[in-house]
Amino acid sequence: MTSELTHEGTMREVVTDLGVLRYHEAGEGPPLLLLHGSGPGVTGWRNYRGVLGDFAEHFRCLVLEFPGFGVSDPGDGHPMAMAMGSVGAFLDAVGVDEPVHMIGNSMGGIVATNVAIHTPDRVNKLVTIGGMGKNVMMPGPGEGIRLLMEFTDNPTREGLIRWLHSMVYDPAIVTEELIEERWALATEPLTLEIAARMYSSKAFAANAAAAKASGSTPYWAQLHRISAPTMLTWGRDDRVSPVDMAMLPMRDIPNAELHVFPNCGHWTMIEAKQAWTSAVLAFLTREEVNR
């Protein structure tokens, strides 16, 4: 199945109040929404192309491209806020009104977690890949986030390479092809401008100050509200969101389980592909026993 799926063959688009949202669709069955992370040159396709075929054998897979990352219409807001708003708009636009399984990588995991907190009727089962939670033992932000801010402030090819290496345990994954693929989209002027709203050092500091001043309850303090069965997946050697961040969601989400993969960085679905896919498929396809 994997070899049959192509970027062009799976690409779709739908018009919403947020503009045109593009996505990839493959497979039949219960709906599975896959949400990508952030960072230079990221797309949903690049996050999930290696595992899409495996999931498409069981589910109707919908890989949403968030606004502001160079594939869907850009939008004029903060990338995280636009991502939060796009999930419901997208599901409504493609006519999915039943609860869906959600897989979210890093930022996409935070988005899916917020959906599970605030609109629980949207989520059947939740899978996150690093990213969500709160630093407990390691200082924040993590190394990968600091390198991401450095690249956003000064977008050089060398800075991109340093950031890419912080994402993985095995440096061999950072190939010339990967570097060039990410560089082309990451340095597109509008994509870079939108990234600066979230990850420039000035924006990062301003957003943190605004969140503190607002007095609003952060999402990580509301994890107990998640009713969906949840699977937290983490690379043991994650340098972007260290694995100690998993401790809070592991304890606070009522029906959560934690899977940690050794010799693996932030891109668990890429670096621990076989083990990760096997574990996630087992979780998504098993019947839940009422507890």
From TrEMBL:
Superkingdom classification of source: Bacteria
SUPFAM superfamilies (alphabetical): alpha/beta-Hydrolases (SSF53474)
Alphabetized InterPro entries for the sequence: AB_hydrolase_1, AB_hydrolase_fold, AB_hydrolase_sf, Epox_hydrolase-like
Positions of the AB hydrolase-1 domain: 30-272
Gene Ontology MF terms in the entry: hydrolase activity
Keyword Hydrolase annotated: yes
Keywords: Hydrolase
PANTHER family: AB HYDROLASE SUPERFAMILY PROTEIN YCLE, MONOACYLGLYCEROL LIPASE
Protein name: Alpha/beta fold hydrolase
